[in-house]
Known about the structure:
The protein has 644 residues and is α/β, with parallel strands linked by helices. The chain has helices spanning 2-16, 26-38, 61-65, 69-101, 106-155, 158-163, 166-208, 210-258, 260-265, 269-321, 327-368, 429-436, 459-463, 480-484, 493-503, 506-511, 529-543, 559-572, 585-588, 608-614, 617-636; strands spanning 390-400, 403-413, 418-422, 444-449, 452-453, 466-469, 478-479, 519-520, 547-551, 577-581, 593-598, 601-606. The protein is elongated.
Amino acid sequence: MGMMMGGGGAARSSQGAxxxxxxxPPELQDRVDGLxxxxxxxxxxxxxxxxxxxxxxxxxxxGLLKPNWLAxxxxxVLVVIETIAMLAGPTLTRIGIDDxxxxxxxxxxxxxxxxxxxxxxxxxxxxxxxxxxAGRVGERLMYALRVRVFSHLQRLDVSFYTEExxxxxxxxxxxDIESLTQLFHxxxxxxxxxxxxxxxxxxxxxDMNVQLAAVTLFVILPVMVAMTLWFRTASxxxxxxxxxxIADVLAHLxxxxxxxxxxxxxxxxxxxxxxxxxxxxxxRDANNHTxxxxxxxxxxxxxxxxxxxxxxxxxxxxxxxxGNLTIGELTAFVLYLSTFFAPxxxxxxxxxxYQKGQAAxxxxxxLLETEPRTVEDPDAVxxxxxxxxxxxxxxxxxxxxxxxxxxxxxxxxAEGEVFALVGPTGAGKSTLAALVTxxxxxxxxxxxxxxHDLRSVTLASLRSQLGIVPQEPFLFAGSIRDNxxxxxPDASDREVLDACRAVGIDDLIDRLPDGIHTPCxxxxxxxxxxxxxxxxLARAFLARPRVLVLDEATSNxxxxxxxxxxxxxxTLLEGRTAIIIAHRLATAMRxxxxxxxxxxxxxxxxxxxxxxxxxxxxxxMYATWERHASGDEAHTGGSAPPxx
Length: 644
């Protein structure tokens, strides 16, 4: 609670300091503080999550509705009452005309009018109760579905996100879920209402007059059914295209927003607008196509309905003249006929909602059936506290079949050893680290930790003992403290500050208006790349991992910041296993051993001095680094970074 209040205070101070706005508007802060003070402290909710044990059943409409069958029965009862009350009007009209007006009985007219009013009152109140009931059931279904989809997204591995566009995933959680929300809130219940209305009206029509009902059933209805079947086929294809086009729009939007700085730097705004116009235009065309289909069907069915009423008036009027039908019966029949055609048109409109929901259901089902490539064995055991011995046994790996990145790698990293990986871009350095963290599994061979095959242990127990600092650190919207304590949310402020001092950013924290409680904007856009990297290192330091993986962790730092990190690493890495992927040899030279990764394998292995003496690839890299360092020294008048 205090953290949240601190965040609000940070919002006030950050505005005063001229920083970008984040957090709670100042004019609302006092009210928010009062609300927070009045709330009771609650334990954080327990959220079940498993990498291996989860619902793998195909997502279907029946499967979603089944757990709520009792609530659906209640909704059905309300629908029956609502439908009967709604259909009482024509029958009461017939009684009022035949038994009241024709017979001159004013008492019948009064009674019928009172019953008519009562049916309206019942219909309105039951309809309101049904809408509220269905709304609650629908929200419960959507809540469960949103959590299930989000949980599955958390379960999928890194390779899935490198291949799938973020915008498409956003469309699954936004437009697709919204389509299902519309279906569950009103679509299904309204389809039930209209379907029940059709059945009841057809029974009433045959009960009133078989000849007129036969004209309706065998002359008018077949035309309506034929048009409905055509519309169903055409709309099926149309709405599937609409779902794909909206996904394209969201994907392009997300990509453009994520890369807004690059777009601005390269003056690509005009091109991006043109590209988005084309993407949005394709979505517009798809919607126009479905709208044309709907308009054609709507006007066609309305014409058939009007012609049907005219036919019934012609045939029924002749029967009234012959004395085979009363005026009240003909009036009631025509009213019921209107009630008969209206549900058909409503069902078609609802079918649009149903089609959108079904298209969304299929896409969500496909997403939920996507199996992670890094699969946790159902019989996996928790990895015990590790010492940090890592072994690669004949490891091969390919991102694309037939294009190996690593082949037959045999390597052992001792516990407590600082191990550096160097080599040209694309040689497989980051892939080796990703196999250790089990972001990927080897195509062949085994990666083990303290003798435990990583595929035989739970992912949570493995990654809880690893610390990872990527080349491009990601910071979440929230406070600086929240980001540093990401792996240990229960860490105290003192521990967070100690981590900041360990990486040498205590001076940055001191400059911020509210220290570690200062808001950190989404992706850390208000911080420099070096500051973001330092915060990511502080996050890893606070986690106190047994094995630390640094993937180009100093690549975005200036020499002064890099020197701070190097000093902090000496303390942090003591007694821990570390894998350092580095282009800067000043970092690699601090390692106990260095591996040169080339051509899918380990080309050279040894200490810095051993590899320099070997005169191979590493020696060439070191000579190049020395020449650049000497050039920097001559240019700046300073001294090059000393070798360890």
